Amino acid sequence: MTTAHGTGQETPQETPRGPGQGAPEGFLCVEGQTKFLETFLPVRNEVLHDFYRTSRRSRSSRTSRTSRTSRAPRTGKRKDLRAAVRLLGGGAKDTVPDLYRLYYNRLFSMIWLALDWGPYTAEIRQVADPQQRIHLSQVNSVDRCWQPAVESAPRDGRLIEVGTGLSDGWARIAHLLPQVEIVSLTIERDQAEIGRRIAERLGLSDRVTFRVGDLFDPATTRDLAGSADAVTAMGVVPHFPPPRKAEGMRAMAAMLKPGAPLQIFDAYRVRPFSRFMDRALISSLCWYPTRDELRDALDEAGLSLTRFDAYDAESCLQFADDTRGTDQLRREFGPVVAWVFPRIVSRFMKGLLAPQDSVYLSAVRR
Predict the structure, then answer these.
(1) pTM, two decimal places
(2) Which of 4, 47, 68, 355 can bridge 310 by disulfide, Cβ–Cβ 3.0-4.6 Å?
(3) Which burial class, exposed, middle or buried, applies to 245 when counting CB atoms under 10 A from its CB (0-12, 13-18, 19+)?
(4) CA gyration radius for the chain?
């Protein structure tokens, strides 16, 4: 098992393992990751813009048809902004489905490539543009998390991603390994639809399939049992309730071929969260384990660790500092949201990351 980074152990924090002998060109290096972003980001951004614009228009049309009062309704922006503020405070349960889909997700998508952070390497820190640093840290995290599969899985094998996010994971792996079949699982139908549109635009529809379902429902993955050369989850384990973390890991591991790796990028608590962060995380159905709880869940799931590369908070906190607005954010949501929202995100991310270590781990079934 490899040693931990950034926690006083042998391997230096800024010296990740290099790509293996058979690693594809551009893997684990800023130059190759930048080339991927140049192809991927314009497509992803256009698909997201069209998807949320169409969805918001549909919602506005439904609202106007069902209105029965003579009083003029509040503008969509004002209504959504007030709902966003209430949601940040843990309330507004009646507005969550539409708000999360059509407002909150869109806001986040304009700042982040996906809802995952990544440690900043020395090379990434030297990049001048803060938004590019964020994008590179996330693509680098995909590379680091998927590293065992990229270096050892059959080039025409099957790789399974748990958690589609905003499609940076499967798209990056499809770019690196042009022969593999990829299955991306998500519980959110919008993520799957966005992924399908991106795959179509990138000419990858014949290699990537998207499946909507609950990992805890055996029917979701029954036909995938024992078929994967690797299964990967980034930012997924905290969404498993504390009593079900081992169950979720078993469900992911059940899709693996014998000896194939389960690959995870996530975080564990090294000290308690603030009261505000506890409330915010519970509101968003997130439960971060401690290091011991994470290891215990892996053991209970019948998994043996082969890698546990940990990074302390300082490696990731610049990610929070780099969250900021864009011209598109101002055009779409106005100057107030463009100024306030990135500051809320930065404060939230600091509150989330400061009490945690981040970890890339791999495990195999015993």
Answers:
(1) 0.85
(2) 4
(3) buried
(4) 20
CB neighbours (10 Å) of residue 347? 13
Q: Are 163 and 186 in contact (CB under 8 A)?
A: yes
Residue reference for tokens 């169409």: 54
CA distance 362 to 95: 38
Q: Which two structure tokens, joined as six digits, stand for 329?
A: 């954010």
Coil, strand or helix at 259:
coil
Residue keyed to tokens 């390994």? 177
Query: Both ends of the chain: CA-CA distance in Å?
Result: 15
pLDDT averaged per 10 residues in sequence order, the chain, 366 residues: 43 42 85 97 91 65 46 47 51 46 69 72 93 92 96 92 94 96 94 96 97 96 97 96 97 97 97 92 90 97 97 92 81 83 87 95 96
Question: How would you class 212 by CB atoms within 10 Å of its CB: exposed for 0-12, middle for 13-18, buried for 19 or more?
Answer: middle
User: What stretch of H or E contains 205?
Assistant: none
CA–CA distance, 227 with 258 (Å, rounded to integer): 9
Tokens (6 digits) for 130: 């803060």
Taking the CB of residue 193, how many other CB atoms lie within 10 A of it? Answer: 17
Rounded alpha-carbon distances, angstroms, from residue 257 to 148, 149, 261, 326: 14, 12, 9, 44
What's the full length of the chain, in residues? Answer: 366
Question: Which residue, among 278, 234, 232, has the nearest Cα to 252 in the 3D structure?
Answer: 232
**Structure token digits, residue 243:** 């009593």
Backbone angles phi, psi at 359, to 5 degrees: -145, 140
CA–CA separation, 181 and 158 (whole Å): 5
Beta 356-365 vs 262-269: how paired, if at all? antiparallel
Cβ neighbors of 366 (< 8 A, separation 6 or more) are 302, 303, 304
pLDDT number for residue 21? 46
Question: Closest by alpha carbon to 19, among 161, 135, 134, 177?
Answer: 177
110: Cβ–Cβ under 8 A, 6 or more apart, which residues?
326, 328, 329, 332
